[in-house]
Amino acid sequence: MKRVTPVASTNSIRELLGNGRWAAKLAWRTQPLLVVSLVAVTLAGGLVPAAAALVLRQLINSAVEVAGQPGASMASLLPLLAFTLLLSIAEALSGTGTDFLTRCFEDDADLCVSSGILEHAARLDLALFEDIGFQNVIHLAQQNTSRHFASLLNSSLSVLTRLMQTISLAAVLATLEPLVILVALPVSLLHAVFQWQMAQRQYLEEYGRAIKRRWTRYFVTLLTDRRSVAETKLLNLAPLLNARFRTLMTEFRDQNRRIYTAAFLGNSLFTVLSVAIFFALLVSVYRRFVQGPLLVGDALVFGTVGLRLRSSLEGTATFLSKANEHMLYVSNLRRFLEMQPRVEPTQGLQPSPVRGEVKLDDLTFTYPGSSTPALSHVSLRILPGQTVALVGKNGAGKTTLVKLLARFYDPDGGTVSLDGLDLRQWSLEYLHRQIAFVFQDLSPYEATAAENIAYGDWQRLLLDRQQMQQIARLTGAEAVIEQMPQGYDTLLGRRFGQYDLSMGQWQQLAIARAFAREAPLLILDEPASNLDAMAEYELFERFRQLAQGRTTILISHRFSTVRMADQIFVLDKGCLVEAGSHEALLVHGGLYARLYEIQRRQLVMPAKHEQDSAG
Q: Which domain covers residue 587, as residue numbers?
C-alpha cells in the first residue's frame, strides 16, 4: 500500500479551472436559490455605476443648458433627477443585499462543508488515518475550508461585479478619451498578474507548513491538556516546549513578513502608476474642455468616473487574487473528498446466521512505509464459540492480526475468512456489526455513563435503559457507576463534565460497551491492562458467562488470564511459532514456557521478599 503524498499544484490553469467548476457545483448543491440571488444582485450591482455615470453626465449638461435660458425651469430635469435617485438607491441596496445573501450562504456552506468532511472521514478506513501523509491532507482540508469555500464564491462574484463595472465604465470614458483603454487597462492587467502570483506564493508557503502547524498544535496540547499537564509540569518541559513553539511561530511570522513586504511594494508601485496615468488622462480631458469640444458634464463625469474606474481596476486585481487564494484552499477540500478508502467498503454478502469460524491462510501484511512485515505467512483456525488467546512479546503482531480480522486493513498476501468466506466478500458494514472489540488504546467518550455503554449498540440501547443497565450489572460496570454523583446520567470527562474516571474505570466501561454489542465475534486487546487484581479477577469470573456462544480472541500479557483459553497461539516477530493449550505449551518448553516462567518469577519475588521482611 502506498503512503498518501499530497502535492500542491498551483501552476496548472486547467487544474484551477477544474477546481472552480467543482466548487461551483458544490455551491449549487449547497443552496441553489441563494446562488441565483447572489448572481442576480451581482449583475445588477455591476451595471449600476456606468448607468449612473451616463445619467449624471446628461443631468449636468441639461442643467447647464437650462440655466442659460430665460425663465429656466426644473421641470425638464425632474425625470433625470428621479432616475438618478433610483440608481443611487439600487446601488446602495445591491451592496446591502449582497452582504445579506453572502452571510446566509456562509452559514449554509459551513454546515455543508463541515458535515461533508465528517461524513467522508467516517467512510475512510483506519489505514489512511495512520498515514502521516493523510494527516497532512486532512489538516489542510480542515483549515477554515468552509470559510474559504464561501469566500471563494464571494470573491468570484466580486470579480464579476468589478469586471462588469470596469468594462461599462471604460466604455463610458472611452467616448471621452480613447487612451483609457490603450494605457490604463494593460497596467491593470499586469497588476492582476502580480496579485495572482502573490496569492500563489502565500498558499505554497502555508501548504509547506502543514507538518509544522501540526507540531504547534501538539505543543499547545501538551501544555494545556489535563492528561499531559501534570507530567510536563513535573519535568519542567514548559520552557522547552514553549521555545520550540515560538521558534516555529517566529519562522511563520518572518516568512509572512517577506510576503507582506513584497506585496506592499508591488501594490504601491502599481497604485502610483495608475494614479499618474489617470491624472495625465484627466489633464488631457480638461485641456479639451477648456478648448471647447467637451461640455462641463463631460469633464466632471470623467473626473468622477475615472477615479471609480481606477478603484474598480484595483478591486478586480485584488478580488481575482483572493479568489485564486481561496480556490487553492478549496482544492485541499476537493483532494480530501476525492480520497478513497484503501479497504473498499463493498456492498457484499451478508450471511446469516454468523457462526464465528475464523481462518487465516498464509497471511502476510506490512504497514505502509515499513520494510519489515508485521505478519509473515500466518495460518491458523478458530472454531465457532472457541476462546483463543494471542501471546507474544511487544511488536510480535498480535494487534495487527486482530485489526486484519476486523478488516481495518486488507492483507498483502493470503486470506482472512469468516465462516469460510474471504472477508473481502462480506459487506464491510455488516461485517463490523458482527464484531465487538475492546481496543488496547481506550477511547474515553465525553458522554454520560449510560451513553458510554450504550454506544456499543446505540441504535438499540440508547432508548432501552433497562437493557443497558442489565449489561452494566453483568460486566461489573454497575459498581463503578453507582459511585458517580448522578449515576448513569453522570457526564464523564473534563471537557464538558465535572467527573473523571481512572483508566481502570474507563476500561471497565469499555468492556461493558463491547459486551453491549450482540456480536458473534468478540476481540479483547489487553482488556485488563488497567484493572487492579480484584477487578480483573471479578471480570474473568464472569467471562465464561459473558462470552458464552461467542468466538472470543483475547490478547493479554497476563498468563493468569490467557490460561483460561481453549487454544493459545504464540507469535514472534510476525510469525506463528507455537499453538496449543496452556498445559501443552508448558510441556513443550518453547517461547510460551519461557515467557510464563519470567512472569511467574516476577510474581514470586515480591511475595518472597515480603516473607523475608516479616521473618
A: 358-434+519-614
